[in-house]
Write a structure and sequence with these properties.
Elements (H helix, E strand, L loop, with lengths): L6 H59 L3 H14 L4 H16 L3 H14 L3 H17 L3 H8 L8 H14 L3 H13 L3 H19 L1
């Protein structure tokens, strides 16, 4: 707009601009309000889903503590189906996997742990599930499959634990040199609380090798 135009000319120019662009402005404002409303609706939906998932998880815990595995499993399956991205579903799956191990239903336990590996929103949870799954596979002498899992760690915080599991697998296979190397790596990166146990495993491998 010409800064030297008269007030009347300026007023007429503004009117003309509004006639040309008023509809677009109005639509933009309406869309803006709709977007804000949509975001608030989505946030409300998300909060409602979290509350529902939390309630279902509390039922799982209460049922598990009461040894009502049927109810605990039903609620867990519901969480896994309806809220697969929720941490509550992952935690419930961990709980049922533990229950299945106690009941010696290893096949079911592996199914729940694999679901966590595939669906957990936190990499740390997936890594813990891989560790437990690898141990279960090793207990069934599925050593190659177990070792493959230990190569899939995504979080450096679990590297020592993964090395220890590899050592356990190699030891079970009587591959003592590989077991020793894995245990040494685990010891080198372990926190203080685990060092004594890992040292014992190292010493045991050395004794077995001498025998």
């Amino acid at each position: 707009m010409d800064i030297y135009a008269s007030d009347e000319e300026k007023g007429e120019a503004i009117k003309q601009w509004w006639r040309n662009n008023g509809m677009s402005v109005a639509m933009g404002i309406a869309l803006g309000f709709a977007a804000v409303g949509g975001i608030k609706y989505w946030q409300g939906q998300q909060q409602g889903m979290k509350i529902e998932a939390s309630k279902a998880y509390q039922v799982v815990i209460a049922a598990a503590e009461a040894d009502d595995i049927v109810v605990a499993q039903e609620q867990t399956e519901q969480l896994m189906a309806e809220f697969p991205e929720s941490s509550y579903a992952t935690l419930a799956a961990f709980k049922i996997a533990e229950q299945k191990v106690v009941a010696k239903d290893i096949a079911a336990a592996k199914t729940y742990l694999q679901w966590i590996v595939n669906n957990a929103s936190l990499s740390g949870q997936a890594d813990i599930a891989r560790l437990r799954l690898a141990r279960l596979l090793a207990s069934e002498s599925a050593f190659d499959e177990a070792l493959a899992l230990t190569a899939q760690a995504t979080n450096d915080a679990f590297s020592s634990l993964y090395s220890e599991v590899r050592g356990d697998i190699y030891y079970a296979q009587a591959k003592l040199a590989e077991a020793h190397a894995a245990y040494q790596t685990a010891l080198d990166t372990a926190d203080t609380g685990r060092q004594a146990t890992l040292q014992l495993k190292l010493d045991n491998v050395a004794v077995a090798d001498e025998g």
